[in-house]
Specification:
The chain has 207 residues and is mainly beta. Helix content is 3%, strand content 53%. The protein has one domain. It is built from one helix and 14 strands, in the order ββββββββαββββββ. It has a 14-stranded mixed β-sheet. A hairpin with a 4-residue loop joins strand 1 and strand 2. The longest helix has 6 residues. It is globular, with a radius of gyration of 16 Å. The C terminus is likely disordered.
Length: 207
């Protein structure tokens, strides 16, 4: 499948994200950039690898603002063993980056904060965009822009098929949020309530 360029705009605050996404039969590779202003101005760049069964194997993130930078690297052996390496330079009023991955033994997926991209992996692994099923997950959630690592309990529920794509209900228990995500035929987010919406291309094609 050819590489796709996706662009989202934020709905809860000024924010933009673009991602180069390469889908394979069994996984995804992606690089992306997110720019935001809340709670401070930042630019975030990431690289994601989930090559087998859409299970995360690696997530690299770098974020920078005026006078500060941070980085985080997550690695996963595919069977519940996670490692986390992080660092920070400069002074900014944010929580420290990184965290203890010891509680992530049940997690197969990363979840990059404020990014609509990483909803893809649990959806595709369980075909939530194609069949009536509900699944509970534990995620390795990376908060943005501080790059803290957290254990996040989530639930995904198939709601209905659309002419092109599907609606999947997301229940985020760590922040008491429930929303119905609109997905394209590949399981990528078109609309995430209160977070982001895909920016459409010109009539000759779509993004």
């Amino acid at each position: 499948m050819p590489q796709r360029t996706l662009i989202w705009e934020g709905l809860d605050a000024w924010r933009a994200e673009t991602a180069q996404v390469e889908l394979t039969r069994d996984g995804v590779y992606a690089t992306g950039t997110q720019i935001g202003v809340d709670p401070v101005g930042y630019r975030l760049d990431y690289r994601l690898e989930a090559p087998e069964r859409f299970v995360t194997s690696r997530l690299e993130v770098e974020v920078a603002g005026t006078g500060w930078t941070r980085r985080l690297e997550l690695r996963h052996d595919g069977h519940g063993a996670w490692s986390c390496d992080s660092g920070a330079e400069g002074d900014v009023d944010l929580p420290p980056p990184g965290g203890d991955p010891a509680g992530l033994g049940e997690a197969l997926d990363c979840d990059l904060g404020l990014s609509p991209l990483t909803n893809l992996m649990p959806v595709r692994r369980h075909a939530l965009h194609e069949r009536e099923v509900a699944v509970d997950f534990v995620m390795a959630w990376v908060s943005v822009p501080d790059l803290g690592l957290h254990c996040s309990e989530q639930r995904y529920e198939h709601v209905r098929r659309m002419n092109e794509g599907a609606v999947v209900r997301y229940v985020g228990r760590h922040r008491s949020f429930v929303g119905e995500l609109e997905l394209d035929p590949d399981g990528l987010v078109l609309h995430y309530p209160e977070l982001a919406r895909r920016v459409r291309g010109p009539a000759r094609g779509t993004l």
